[in-house]
Amino acid sequence: MHRLAAGKASLDSSVIVDFYLVGRLVLLEEMFSGRLLMSDFVKQELVDARLQIAGVETISLSTVEEWEFFRKLQQGRPGLGPGELGALCVARFHDAALVTNDRQARLAAEESEISVHGGLGVLECAIEVGRLSGEQAVQILEEMISQGAWISYELAEKFKNKVLRSR
Amino acid sequence: MSNVIGRNIKKARESAGLSQERLAEMLDVSRATLSAVENGHIAIDSGKLLTAAKVLGRPVSDFFQEKEEALALLYRAALEETAPSAARSAFERFCKAYRELEEIVGVADTQLPPPDYSSSPGVESRPEQFAAQVAASERQRLGLGGRGPIVNIFQLFEEQGVRIFCYPLERDKVFGLSAFSPKYGPCILLNSANTIERQIFTLAHEYGHLLMHRRFYQTADPSSGLDKEDSMEIMANEFAANILVPAAGLRDVVWRDIGEKDLGLQDLVFLKRYFKVSAQVVLRRLRDVGLVQKQHADDLGVELEKRAPEKQEFVPLNEDLLRDWNLVSRFKHLARKAALEGQVSLGKLAELMNRNVVDAKKLVQEWRKELSFA
């Protein structure tokens, strides 16, 4: 079973914006219904962009331990913003997978041994749970790339080959 | 981290002039809780921190800074006009974002600041001559020679390490302001609601302050702008006039292209386009250099006022200068480089560029398209 098919997920803005720009925000809402966690820093970024996503549980950082982890991440990767740092903290302290299309956030997650997935993982999982066909997933992927999603060419090609071959 | 956040909340609260009771009320916590947060005894809830950021008008990342260096500001404004605090906040935010980008990209401290003349004896003993002398010396240092026009003053000064921030200020009598700190270097805010001619003069004027009055940049929160008659203001005006329109260059052009007959409005248009300044600045320089008599200059001044509606420029320059500078603006280059090389996250880019995440994403997509079509 795909790691994103069960368990909690902490999303950052990058993946939400990528799905939003291709009009597929509802896919995220349905896929992660009842298990979608969001740092209030991410929520604030979405509010600033007048973007709404339904069915999320907003999580605040409040303990010394959480803030110390936040600081450690920030010092290690100054290219991360409060939203990504918050999403990483939520993933770490709430036993959730981080879902991001951001390179810096992905690297920070790997360094901290946080389970991390991108938009491709969401699409793979959607196929696995029967929410999307392979063709639909490939179409969404191509739309996302054309709208600027940061997904490597090699990974995208690998995904397409795998999905379309297994028809 | 609790200590750092608490200390920064306290600093921001005090700088906003809010009492602990008032901020506690706004955050819906007791005064004792806020006091414990400010003293680093307890950790703040991030939701409350976001509210505090909103109430205090600061980006949330300001509260995570371990050591913040205040910018010392010096104003240039019409009498009794001051830059609104929103503009000052935006300016400070820009200066910090600029520095952060330099650090992320790895090009911090690669530029020497312009020279500091503020301790030279001439500053006080003969201010106007001193300002003219500094302008001539700076033209030589910058390789401009003693005669020609400055092709693009925005680009030229940015190459000298000046951070230039264009921001529309509702009060159009606030022309600009400058700041200096050892960490951020020289920074200039220009009121982009003013004409391009005004912006050019303001840029030169503030640059003059940064060269001649560096040691006066001591306060982060001035209560008012400098008086127009203040000798520092007179010096900065003198510097700007001399660096933009050097006397020798003006004489050359007048003798070569205009001749000895009385100058007319068409000549002012030619000269303002040549030196890229306002018609008023040209007229002032013609008078100062002795190329027109006072009475004739006054008559031309009256003619200019008749022809140019209030707050508008006579035969305005086009804004190619700004467009060309924007293409090579160092701040934008650093942001583009950091984003395209994946050195900053989407959220960080949005914060640095003062945009929301969707707009930041679209901006990055534009940059990527530029590369794919190149």
Q: What integer value in Å does the Rg of chain B equal?
A: 23 Å
Which residues of chain B sit in consecutive blocks of at least 5 with pLDDT less than 50? 76-80
Question: How many structural domains in the coordinates of chain A?
Answer: 1
User: What's the number of helices of chain A?
Assistant: 9
Overall 3D form of chain A: globular
Oligomer: heterodimer
- Structural class designation of chain B: alpha+beta
Helix-strand topology string of chain B: HHHHEHHHHEEEHHHHHHHHHH
- The CATH H-level homologous superfamily of chain A: 5'-nuclease
Mean pLDDT of chain B: 86
Global mean pLDDT of chain A: 92
Tell me the structural class of chain A.
alpha/beta
> Distance between termini of chain A?
18 Å
Radius of gyration of chain A: 15 Å
Which range does the strand content of chain A fall in? Answer: 5-15%
Strand order of the largest sheet of chain B: 1-3-4-2
Count of helical stretches of chain B: 18
The share of residues in helices of chain A is 55-70%
Helix content of chain B: 55-70%
What is the general shape of chain B? elongated
Q: Quick one: how many beta strands of chain A?
A: 5
Descriptive key words:
heterodimer, A: 167 residues, alpha/beta, 5-stranded parallel sheet, 9 helices, 5 strands, globular, B: 374 residues, 4-stranded mixed sheet, 57% helix
Question: Mind explaining what this structure looks like?
Answer:
The complex is a heterodimer of chains A (167) and B (374). Chain A has 167 residues and is α/β, with parallel strands linked by helices. Chain A has a single domain, classed as 5'-nuclease (Rossmann fold, 3-Layer(aba) Sandwich). In chain A, strand 4, helix 6 and strand 5 form a beta-alpha-beta unit. Chain A starts with 7 loop residues before the first strand and ends with a helix. The mean pLDDT of chain A is 92. Chain B has 374 residues and is α+β, with helices and mostly antiparallel strands. The longest helix of chain B has 21 residues. Chain B is elongated and about 80 Å long. Classes of the chains: A alpha/beta (167), B alpha+beta (374). The interface between A and B is large, with 45 and 36 residues.
